[in-house]
Amino acid sequence: MSPGALQICLVKAYRVGLQKWPQVKSIDSNHLLEAGLEGFYGESSPQMKQANPGIQVGTDFIANNQIAGIDFATLHSYPDQWISNSDDQAQLAFLNNWLDTHIRDARDVLKQPLLLTEFGKSWKDPGYSSSQRDAMFSTIYRKIYWSARTGGTTAGGLFWQLLAEGMDSYRDGYEIVLGETPSTTGIISSQCRLLRHLGKLYARMRNVEKAKKAKAIRRSQWQAENKAKPIGN
Length: 233
Description:
Elements: H1 3-19, H2 24-27, H3 61-65, E1 73-77, H4 79-82, H5 88-110, E2 114-119, H6 130-149, E3 154-157, H7 182-228
Parallel strand pairs: 1-2, 2-3
Helix pairs in contact: 5-6, 6-7
């Protein structure tokens, strides 16, 4: 079997397995489901495979997320692993394209929310500096905020990984200990404040719309009641 045929078989087998996941809905209809994908494009969208970092792992971002019962799409981003031989600027350029492509496809093709469920930069990378990681976090957070602010599908991101002091056995190079990384912590805190403010703004807008609808209903009811009343004695 050729490598291409083997990959197609793997994708089909993976998809068959995923198709059983929505059975969870029969137990808990409010349980949100996702496929846990990194975001690599596959055979269902061959024109998009050029966005991949040269990695073929048998998953298919479009096809796997179109399975009935999948509620939102997920995305990972590790340019320092995927294109480790590239310099920092090339990795940031890849990151920008990777995010733009998936945000667009989640909106236009999948029509699903998109959550960036893993991203990070390891201090074990050759030539690492905290400014490189800060640049990565800032780039990702700007994309997420802009999508959320403009009513897009992407409104959240989870970096890998947050540790508390004393959890040294879990350190893998990607860990964030808030007390040890003041610049990165500041970027994270700022993003949290921005999204929290945006969430409150949208909540107020929804409440205003609800109030308008309620007022319109009351006016309609009043008009119907008064129209039905006889005029004069």
